[in-house]
Amino acid sequence: MKEIPSLYTWAGGQPALEKLTAVFYAKVLKDELLEPVFRHMSPEHSKHVAHFIGQVFGGPPVYTGEDEGSHARMVQHHIGKSLTETQRRRWISLLLDSADEIGLADDPEFRSALVGYLEWGSRLAVINSNTTENPINENEPMPMWGWGETGGPYQP
Fold it and tell me: How far apart, in whole angstroms, are the C-alpha atoms of residue 115 and residue 111?
């Protein structure tokens, strides 16, 4: 039986994810709908997001290691932002445009997994952005995303 690579490996590893997020956040800062949300992001923001995605996609624990991040800290960045469905959809659209622009793997299986993760994560971001308290405690593990299907319906 052949070995199935992680999404991280299939995407091209950290260089590909860092290129993706750099191109994406350059677009975000020019977008009238999303720029106000990201106006004050740190210069390292796109790299931290690449590290987060990389770890979620089965790559090395750079986000929780070097970046000293956690699932709870990522969620905390969204608390109280009052994100809208329109912003969420634009965010996904620009990210997928960026993926095409940089030549990220475009086979159906990878793109299905990528879009599935983006839909899942961005919908949680909207939910969490409309709360005042972080629903994730600091000890919760990082999410992991692979090639398969979700484990059932969302239940908060």
Answer: 6
